[in-house]
Amino acid sequence: MPVSLRFHRFDLRLKHTFTIAHDSRDVQPTLIVELQDGPLSGFGEATSNKYYGITLDRMTADLESIRGLIEAGTWTTAEKLWQLAHDYLKDNPFAQCALDEAAHDLMAKQAGKPLYRYWNLDPSRNPLTNYTIGIDTVDTMVRKMQELPWPVYKIKLGTPDDLAIVRELRKHTDAVFRVDANCAWTADTAIFNALALKELGVEFIEQPLKADDWDGMKRVMEQSVLPVIADESCIVESDVERCAGYFHGINIKLTKCGGLTPARRMIEKARQLGLNVMVGCMNETSVGISAIGQLLPLLDYVDMDGTLLITNDPATGVTFDFGRVIYARENGTGASLKK
């Protein structure tokens, strides 16, 4: 199955400056990988990321270095391509993610099925996606919520006024809240804040402590009145088992773990360990978001609002109806680049 490899670069403009505890940005560069086989094309995506040292140039160079392996077409499944490429891309999971998503999209299109059907998954109980409110002035955070009424909001925290922020936001909606401290709290702060946050209708706390503060997380896990979900503490497959006993669940990012192939293995391992499972996004276009959507039947929670946070999506794919994810009519992940 010889294929041709193509790259598409885009600068995504964010609707609002996106601020979390350790970063702030107005533009998000992204790389879309295309695997073309005759009239069919599979698409995958990974964004650049300063925190992890990932640039579009680095992703492109690493994928170019194995162009021959990819285009030879000796692989018969996306999983086999992932394994073949992994020796070369193990230090660049973002590039591996884009390639893996494109391969899955192409394989399902060749089979004439949506990817979730190709995997024999039942979408009848898919979770709703949250909508993320980045750190800003309280008035601006309220305005962001009012711009898009939604059933579930994820609120980015990590400021000296975190509880005051949530109290003010709560005055303006009865939606479910989730909070993400992005490693900004101490164990004492997390345990204390959880008491107030539970009363304010918060469902869980994502990554309250620094990724390597395992002693602190043990205390939080034991004493928090709210569930805690790992993000920065759960990057790759080997992290899942480590999180058991320290977190109630994990948040998988496809770009960080290397794509759909390892994400499915991480989900299976998490289930064996009794952990809840969430998948999150990185401000991707409809290409990356549509790939996440194929995993919905396997998840408890999802954060796939990336396309709702940008103004110039160059692709089409899944859409949303008040938190509910609507699959595209096309096969594969349903994603296509706009003409």
Describe, in plain words, how this protein is organized in 3D:
The structure is a single chain. By secondary structure, the protein is α/β, with parallel strands linked by helices. 37% of the residues lie in helices and 24% in strands. The protein has helices at 56-64, 67-72, 78-89, 93-111, 115-118, 138-147, 162-170, 187-199, 214-223, 237-243, 254-257, 260-272, 286-293; strands at residues 4-20, 23-37, 40-47, 131-133, 152-156, 176-180, 202-206, 228-230, 249-253, 276-280, 301-302, 315-316, 319-321, 324-326, 336-337. The strands form four sheets. An eight-stranded parallel β-sheet has the order 4-5-6-7-8-9-10-11. A three-stranded antiparallel β-sheet has the order 1-2-3, with helices on both faces. Strand 13 (319-321) and strand 14 form a beta hairpin. Helix 3 runs antiparallel to helix 4 (93-111) and helix 8 packs parallel to helix 9 (214-223). The radius of gyration is 19 Å and the shape is globular. The model has no long low-confidence stretch (mean pLDDT 97).
Biggest sheet, in brief? 8 strands, parallel
Spatial strand sequence of the major β-sheet: 4-5-6-7-8-9-10-11
Q: Counting H and I runs of at least 4 residues, what is the number of helices? A: 13
Structural class: alpha/beta
Give the distance, in angstroms, between the N- and C-terminal Cα atoms: 26 Å
- Helical proportion, percent range: 25-40%
Overall mean pLDDT stands at 97
Round the Cα radius of gyration to an integer and report it: 19 Å
H/E element order: EEEHHHHHEHEHEHEHEHEHHEHEEEEE
Report the count of strand segments: 15
